[in-house]
From TrEMBL:
Membrane-spanning parts: 6-25
Protein name according to UniProt: Secreted protein
Keyword annotations of the record: Membrane, Transmembrane, Transmembrane helix
The organism's place on the tree of life at top rank: Bacteria
C-alpha cells in the first residue's frame, strides 16, 4: 500500500512539474511574440486597409480581406485588440499603437506616407499607363518588374519611429498585387518566430517573391533579400544636365 501511495504521489508530482514547464514555455513564447509585434495583453492595434484599385467603388479586394484575417488571428493570439480603418480615414501618427498597413502606395495613401518617411530608398512605379515598368519596385539600384501570375514582389517591413520615439512598430505589406499582400501576411504568420530570433525588435525590410500565384495562390513565397540598408538609404538625386540649365 505504501508503495502504491508513493507511486501515485510521484506520478502526480511529475505531471505537475510537466504542466508547470509547459506553461512556462508557452508564456515565454507568448511574451516573445508580444514583444515582436508590440502587442502586450489587452493592447490596441490598427489595421489599415487599402482600396481595390481596379474597382470604381470604395471596395476592398478579397485578397486584402484575407490578409486582414491573417493579421487578426496573429493579434488575437497576442491577447490584443484591433481596429480596422481604411487608408483615407487614418489621420494619426505612428508609434502609439502597433499598426499593420496593407497595400501599395498607389491605392493606400497611408502606405505612401510611411514609405516616404521611412523607406527613402524605395520607389514604386504607380503610373496607371501600361508598360514593362508598371508597378515595378526600385530598391536602391535594383529594379524588380511584375510578371502577373508568374513572378510578383512584395515588401514586408517592420519599422519603428526611431530610438527616441515610441516603441510600437508599424508593419508594412506593400505588394505589386493584392494577392502578394496576402502572401506577405501569411509569410509573417508562418515565420514570425524565426524573424524575431534573427532581428529581435529592430527594424527590417524584406523583399519577397511570390511564385506562380496563378497556380499556387499566395502559398509559394521566396525570400529574395534583406534590403533593410538599401531601403533606408535615400536614392541619389538625379543630376541636372547643363542643357536643362540653359533651357531654363
Amino acid at each position: 500500500m505504501r508503495n502504491i501511495v508513493l507511486g501515485v504521489a510521484a506520478a502526480g508530482i511529475s505531471a505537475l512539474l510537466g504542466w508547470l514547464a509547459r506553461t512556462y514555455m508557452w508564456k515565454r513564447k507568448l511574451r516573445r511574440q508580444q514583444a515582436f509585434f508590440g502587442l502586450p495583453d489587452n493592447s490596441e492595434s490598427l489595421l489599415v486597409v487599402n482600396r481595390d484599385a481596379s474597382s470604381p467603388d470604395l471596395a476592398v479586394h478579397r485578397y486584402d480581406v484575407f490578409a486582414l484575417l491573417e493579421l487578426a488571428a496573429l493579434i488575437k493570439d497576442c491577447g490584443a485588440h484591433a481596429e480596422v480603418i481604411t487608408q483615407d480615414a487614418a489621420r494619426q501618427g505612428f508609434g502609439e499603437r502597433t499598426e499593420f498597413c496593407v497595400g501599395g502606395p498607389g491605392s493606400n495613401r497611408r502606405m505612401a506616407a510611411h514609405m516616404h518617411a521611412m523607406l527613402p530608398g524605395v520607389r514604386v512605379n504607380t503610373d496607371p499607363e501600361p508598360g514593362p515598368d508598371r508597378l515595378a519596385f526600385q530598391v536602391g539600384s535594383e529594379r524588380y518588374r511584375l510578371e502577373p501570375g508568374l513572378t510578383e514582389y512584395v515588401l514586408l517591413a517592420r519599422l519603428t519611429a526611431g530610438e527616441s520615439g515610441p516603441s510600437r512598430p508599424v508593419f508594412l505589406f506593400c505588394g505589386q498585387r493584392a494577392i502578394t499582400n496576402q502572401a506577405a501576411t501569411r509569410y509573417l504568420a508562418r515565420n514570425h518566430e524565426r524573424l524575431a530570433r534573427k532581428h529581435g525588435n529592430t527594424p527590417f525590410v524584406l523583399l519577397l517573391k511570390v511564385v506562380n500565384s496563378q497556380a499556387y495562390g499566395p502559398d509559394v513565397v521566396e525570400l529574395v533579400a534583406d534590403v533593410t540598408r538599401a531601403a533606408q538609404t535615400p536614392l541619389p538625386t538625379p543630376a541636372v544636365s547643363r542643357s536643362a540649365h540653359r533651357a531654363s
